[in-house]
């Protein structure tokens, strides 16, 4: 959608809808001057009735008494509790209401009197609007192709950079969602590799894709084993963005199982259709790489996406198999549905060996155990580095993408020791399932600063997901905004 900023005074702006925020227990919306006696009176009455409660939206038709056709008042909660997230949510609700009304363009007023810094508030509003108007309609004949344009009425000198940045970040999230929502009959590992090459050519990224034969020859035993049961061959996708000379890169790894049946340890049929979302970690990496390039971030990034389809067949790997992963470590297979950690182990090991990064971060829809522990609104985070974990937690607070750090120590590492190989791909029974999965990955990264995000609950809207206007049904693109915020600090 089209977003721009203007210095125009609200009372002079000709628009279909002039949208303003009002704090709880206030009768004066932020930045709305006196306009017309009847309009001013109605605004005060509406504010009294709605009490500025977050989520409340009231539309006042002006009947040509002022240039704006409508004044739209959105509650934003207590003034002292206004945050990035409350602006994002309120702006998202405004956008959805404007779309429902069939409005072609609307304005949001962000004045100097707003409780947040103007750049922060304007950026959050843009994200809320952009992300809320997303819909995946590729396979529908009735497509919602037209979206309303947005003008932020604010001090341009303080907000134009933030708005441009938020546009790029939003585009990255929407790009990740668009791939993640693709059905498995269209999006297999080869298709994902093709998308990476296209993204690279348009965004000045370097892209390398390793084939099935190259993976076997180079010792990627985890990716090769998981992918061998499907006619759709596995791929390892590597994208490089260079925004700063002579600096070690950040490596970001994302699990991309384009469909996960569980393999020989097959999953129950219920909700197996949602296993198209098992590629969401990889899609997050795609979105980060796109936005980082668009924003011209002064960092070096390597995005690594191991992609497979986990299928049962006569060629599938089995419980009881012992495989040699990248770097030479052996793993006993106890459950073929614990496949994500195998392909991530290969990718993490390769990324550290090939690029010697300053840090490595991975995203994966890794375990149902994480949903049992934290639900569907908080991602689990495991890290071997307190400084990295703290910085990522701070970014999550700004972006509203909630994370909770889980522990890891030698006791958890002992839980994945194998009697027949060096490690095994599940812990003992169902205890600490999210952490033992992370422990498997920890055995690949060694002392390299590392953070792992288990996004099994947050990668798409599912049972128990909190209703947020900027997360419509389907993939959420979780993690794109968080990492871009982290990289921007």
Task: Characterise this structure.
This protein has 489 residues and is α/β, with parallel strands linked by helices. The protein has two domains: 3-153, Leucine Aminopeptidase, subunit E, domain 1 (3-Layer(aba) Sandwich); 173-488, Aminopeptidase, CATH 3.40.630.10. The protein has 14 helices and 18 strands. It has helices spanning 37-50, 84-100, 118-132, 156-180, 189-203, 212-218, 221-227, 280-295, 340-355, 368-374, 386-399, 410-414, 433-445, 480-488, and strands at residues 3-6, 18-22, 57-61, 70-75, 105-109, 149-153, 206-210, 235-242, 250-254, 256-260, 300-310, 322-324, 330-332, 359-364, 379-383, 403-405, 423-424, 450-454. The strands form three sheets. Strands 7, 8, 9, 10, 11, 14, 15, 16 and 18 form a nine-stranded mixed β-sheet that branches. Strands 1-6-5-2-4-3 form a six-stranded mixed β-sheet, sandwiched between helices. The longest helix is centred in the middle third of the chain and has 25 residues, at 156-180. The radius of gyration is 24 Å and the shape is elongated. It starts with a strand and ends with a helix.
What does the secondary structure layout of this molecule look like, with pairings?
Elements: E1 3-6, E2 18-22, H1 37-50, E3 57-61, E4 70-75, H2 84-100, E5 105-109, H3 118-132, E6 149-153, H4 156-180, H5 189-203, E7 206-210, H6 212-218, H7 221-227, E8 235-242, E9 250-254, E10 256-260, H8 280-295, E11 300-310, E12 322-324, E13 330-332, H9 340-355, E14 359-364, H10 368-374, E15 379-383, H11 386-399, E16 403-405, H12 410-414, E17 423-424, H13 433-445, E18 450-454, H14 480-488
Parallel strand pairs: 1-6, 2-4, 2-5, 5-6, 9-11, 9-14, 10-11, 13-17, 14-18, 15-16
Antiparallel strand pairs: 3-4, 7-8, 8-11, 12-13, 15-18
